């Protein structure tokens, strides 16, 4: 991919599309988006070990006054920080009379049940047993061996990221009626980007896709331009991989923001009141740049994070519709892929 400047980087991050075409006249991608390629990549992702680790949420959402709560595959989970700031986790049901610990406060690192005052410091107590937890600096994970059923790993499979000191991170969470595999399949279909999200992506070409061999790294390589305004775009090369069954990672490998990542984690929540599966999408954007002005952007992170989450939310309104449609067709035996 030619970035058009000495040293492989443009002087300015923006480019001007000189041959912009209307949405309906762009090159069709349906012949290239072969169902067997997507299904094969999904099957291989599902065969990779997760060690029974599940993303619960953003690290910065684990506060000092209340727990972060999530239901994972029907299991109520609470996560908080102990007196030393270490993340601890365990069942969200009080072992005394079943109070919802998600509604209980944290005081000096101890979760105090608001029904009868049972105090939990993160260690085993009164029949309450903690779950292994991991804070990777961006996301918090919990290991649920009874749910996952795999041989456990000491730590989750965390993708390679830019160093935290030079990065800006934001985490978006959305929920849809589907299963994790439907979310992962969406991310393993890069061909839909410019057709389904024309407000964000243009000039998309998949220049490499998996053939099932170990040599190709099981990666989708995409040249695409992120739309800024009008004909102003930011061209990049991105590589999509699935390091574990419920995660797809996009690495920017060329162009503006090289080294930045977007991690999409699919977390099964359980069934709704109609018996349909619910899945949370937890997407972490970890952006980096060696441009001098990026230091200012990091300083403005509290202002920028809501904008990044809003942009992710707009994309996932569409992509969750894709995932939900895929599940609905699979559930009724009508999915053509």
Write a compact overview of the structure shown.
With 337 residues, the protein is an alpha+beta fold. It is built from six helices and 17 strands. The N terminus is likely disordered.
The ordered string of helix (H) and strand (E) elements is: EHEEEEEEEEEHEHHEEEEEEHH
Unreliable sequence segments: 1-8
Euclidean distance between termini CA atoms: 32 Å
Specify the structural class. Answer: alpha+beta
Q: How many helices?
A: 6
Total strand segments: 17
Strand content: 25-35%
Domain Rieske: 53-142
Keywords: 2Fe-2S, Iron, Iron-sulfur, Metal-binding, Oxidoreductase
InterPro entries: Cholesterol_7-desaturase, DUF5914, Rieske_2Fe-2S, Rieske_2Fe-2S_sf
Protein name: DUF5914 domain-containing protein
Detailed description of the structure:
Residues 53-142 form the Rieske domain. InterPro entries: Cholesterol_7-desaturase (IPR050584), DUF5914 (IPR045612), Rieske_2Fe-2S (IPR017941), Rieske_2Fe-2S_sf (IPR036922). It is a single chain. The chain is built from 6 helices and 17 strands. With 337 residues, it is of the alpha+beta class. The radius of gyration is 21 Å and the shape is globular.
Secondary structure blueprint with pairings:
Elements: E1 15-16, H1 35-46, E2 53-58, E3 68-72, E4 75-81, E5 87-91, E6 106-107, E7 110-112, E8 119-120, E9 133-135, E10 139-143, H2 145-148, E11 167-176, H3 180-187, H4 193-196, E12 201-208, E13 220-229, E14 232-244, E15 247-255, E16 261-271, E17 277-288, H5 294-299, H6 301-331
Antiparallel strand pairs: 1-14, 2-10, 3-4, 4-5, 6-7, 7-8, 9-10, 11-17, 12-13, 13-14, 14-15, 15-16, 16-17
Helix pairs in contact: 3-6
